[in-house]
Design brief:
The chain is mostly helical. The protein is 81% helix and 0% strand. It is globular, with a radius of gyration of 20 Å. The relative contact order is 0.16.
């Protein structure tokens, strides 16, 4: 691999460029979370309807990834990412002036084009480094990108209290413009083996479908991230309506989740090459199950405090931070010549499952139910991730490591 120089499109993209690109989608999914109760009041809509701004965004992200990955294999990573980020910026601007909740939901669907940053950053890593290096590099990218969502909900909560929910979308708009400019100036084309046509690219999906290892990594990533997305759907309600936190208070506690995720990313980046992808997957998922068991125990013994939710969720975040870089590295390494398609399809399954769990977590939550529906969904998702990882290990014993 050639030497990396910042703002030089003739060299591989700087890791900060990949961090900004990947972080855009994550920031768009959680920056405004503290504003959900206030948005329900502003639009005079039920919380369940306003919560669709999360789940519809995730569902649209899942669908779009099915096209973004193959499109980048056909046309290149750079043009697909730039066009997607331009759509995201325009949709964010329109969301600020949305007159109804329905209009806002439509804008959220278009904002899902930000997913190209996450999908294509994984493919770009696989374009430029070997499979053994990919998990480590993806770990560093995801560790860096957690800075934005770590601060996002906290800043979003403060801005919501001072200026209203639109202020969080103004911040999102500024971030989208900066990300577009950095990608434009630094990201050269890394896909040197483009497919002949889009139809030819879609015809490669059966090759992925026949890979048991691909499905194992995809299921591991989907169930691992499912616990996080369930928290995105139900966490704000539990924090504000059951535990009595203000929007900024929720944003402050949310830092614990992203801090745990960052620690997990660092562990993954540091040790994945030493211990191997599959061992890291299992370790991360077992840590997440332990975190959820702790939260259930604390609430059952009567310790109804925000720390009973957010400290265990921090542990879950650390486990997810260990697991996801390795699962995603596995996804794009099963068939290296289909890295973009594999990243898109795997991401679609990952986000689609997360959207479903987000809706499920929010659907059964009431003040009377307490936090238990959310905790149950998150625990079940983490246990399923352990099962998927054991399947991957079983396949590896039969057919060898990647």
């Amino acid at each position: 691999m050639s030497t990396v120089r910042f703002f030089d499109k003739t060299t591989p993209p700087h890791i900060l460029t990949l961090v900004m690109a990947a972080g855009t989608s994550t920031l768009a999914s959680n920056l405004f979370l503290p504003s959900l109760p206030g948005m329900a009041t502003y639009f005079d809509a039920d919380y369940g309807i306003v919560q669709l701004t999360v789940s519809l965004y995730l569902a649209a992200t899942a669908v779009l990834q099915l096209g973004i990955g193959p499109a980048s294999d056909r046309f290149g990573r750079r043009p697909v990412m730039l066009i997607s980020f331009a759509v995201f910026a325009v949709a964010t601007l329109l969301a600020i002036f949305a007159p109804t909740i329905e209009a806002l939901l439509a804008c959220r669907v278009l904002q899902a084009f930000a997913a190209s940053g996450m999908v294509l950053s994984r493919a770009i890593v696989r374009d430029t480094v070997s499979a053994d290096e990919a998990a480590s590099r993806i770990g560093y990218v995801t560790m860096g990108m957690t800075v934005a969502p770590m601060l996002g909900p906290f800043l979003g909560g403060i801005m919501d209290e001072l200026y209203g929910w639109q202020a969080t979308f103004y911040l999102m708009l500024a971030f989208s413009i900066i990300s577009f400019l950095i990608v434009y100036l630094d990201l050269g084309e890394t896909n040197m083996h483009r497919s002949a046509s889009m139809t030819a690219q879609f015809r490669t999906y059966p090759e992925l479908f026949r890979s048991r290892r691909f499905w194992g990594y995809a299921a591991t990533a989907a169930f691992t991230s499912g616990a996080f997305f369930a928290f995105l759907g139900g966490g704000p309600f539990v924090a504000t309506e059951i535990l009595g936190l203000s929007p900024s208070g929720y944003g402050l506690y949310f830092v614990l989740l992203t801090f745990g995720y960052m620690i997990g990313n660092f562990i993954s980046a540091r040790y994945s090459r030493l211990f191997g992808i599959n061992r890291m997957l299992l370790s991360g998922n077992l840590i997440a199950v332990g975190g959820m068991a702790l939260s259930i125990l604390l609430f059952m013994i009567g310790y109804h405090h925000p720390l009973s939710l957010f400290v265990p969720v921090c542990i879950v975040g650390m486990g997810n931070g260990i697991t996801l870089p390795n699962a995603n590295a596995g996804l794009v390494s099963v068939r290296p010549h289909l890295a973009g398609s594999a990243s898109g399809l795997g991401g679609a399954l990952q986000i689609g499952g997360g959207a479903a769990l987000s809706v499920l977590a929010g659907a059964f939550l009431t003040v009377e139910s307490g936090p238990y529906p959310l905790l149950a969904v998150m625990t079940l998702s983490s246990l399923c991730a352990v099962g998927a990882t054991l399947y991957v290990i079983h396949v590896a014993r039969q057919r060898g490591e990647l």
